[in-house]
Amino acid sequence: MIMKIRQLLISFLLATNALGAASQVSKTYYVSKPGTLISMMTQEEANSVTHLTLTGKLNAEDFRHLRDEFNNLKVLDISNAEIKMYSGKAGTYPDGKFYMYMPNFIPAYAFSNVVNGVTKGKATLEKVILSEKTKNIEDAAFKGCDKLKICQIRKKTAPNLLPEALADSITAIFVPLGSSDEYRNKNRWEKFAFIEGEPIETTLQVGAMGKLEDEIISAGLQPKDINFLTVEGKLDNADFKLIRDYMPNLVSIDISNTNVTAIPDFTFSQKKYLLRVKLPHNLKSIGQRVFSNCGRLCGTLELPASVTAIEYGAFMGCDNLRHVVATGNKITTLGDDLFGANAPSKLIYKK
User: InterPro entries attached here (predicted)?
Assistant: First the structure.
């Protein structure tokens, strides 16, 4: 009986690993001639790729294929590819317009397109790694790429950023060590979250209260280095204290699948890089100044229907936050100056 259970467990683990592996398809291609990327694979192969590394030579035709095909592309690494000049109508510019694309420029509309007057970005793209040779990121290159959380640039001096090329409210910029000030002082880069070094992403299963630090250490990480954190399982006040005091470089945190019902005072206060938060499904209360002075927290923050209390100054200084949406009708406690003294309320109730 024990042997059968063990065999079933092994079979389950193998099946789970196979499923996880099947969800990520990584490919590396050397493109010897610009404009020939799509000829190196079938349409089915292109659409199966989630993580793509390209070396060699690319041009605007290749970017058009990356944009319009490769339907599941999440991560694109072109840090060791050279972008060649191209003139013609088969590039990325909308409506087949003749355009001259310059060398080592990320082309205009590289990952966005205009359809019936509406600009739509590549919906699957989450991370892009650009070469140290990058000179420009052209107009609307990544406009509408709403899931693009990481743009990593190997270049120590900031490339020119053209209008609407990147959204500072969506994408964190990872740059070489010692170069963030140079980027920050460059025109159109001022409002981005700049972090030096490699982006660190981790998903942790925490089986017992107060064990978040143990899981981080077991993963071979240090709390201060983590940028993108997903936690599932159990958290308590000691875990939130760890997040508050020792995780200054968080860009995104997802605690939606935890047991948490209350977020303690000041937990995320003054986290200057924080762009996105997913709250626990069964959350009931948000403490005082939990998100105060998270100046880059952006978009719309949706509160679970279970929330009953939001305390004083919870969103004070969150100037980029568009709305806080209450999805339920259970909120009975609203602290004074939720968004700061004399600041307009951004709290809306979803019908």
Answer: Dev_Immune_Receptor (IPR050328), LRR_5 (IPR026906), LRR_dom_sf (IPR032675)
Q: How far apart are CA 329 and CA 135, in angstroms?
A: 51
- Spatial contact of 108 and 141, defined as CB atoms under 8 Å apart: yes
Under 8 Å between Cβ of 158 and 136: no
pTM over 0.70, yes/no? yes
Q: What is the pLDDT of residues 280-324, one digit of tens each?
A: 999 999 999 999 999 999 889 999 999 999 999 999 999 989 999
The answer to whether 66 touches 40, Cβ cutoff 8 Å, is no
Alpha-helix runs per DSSP H in the chain: 2-23, 43-48, 60-68, 180-184, 212-218, 237-246
Q: What is the mean pLDDT of the chain?
A: 92
Tokens standing for residue 144: 């509408």
| In contact, 147 and 176? CB cutoff 8 Å | no
Q: How many CA atoms lie within 13 A of 31 on its CB side?
A: 26
The secondary structure of 146-184, three-state, reads CCCCEEEECCCCCCEECCCCCCCCCCEEEECCCCHHHHH
Q: Cα–chain-centroid distance for residue 278?
A: 13
327, with CB counted inside 10 A (0-12, 13-18, 19+), is middle
Confidence of residue 342 (pLDDT cuts 50, 70, 90): confident
What are the structure tokens assigned to 309, written together?
């209390």
- What domains sit in the chain, N to C, each tagged with a CATH number? 19-196 (3.80.10.10), 201-349 (3.80.10.10)
Strand-strand pairing, 99-101 and 127-130: unpaired
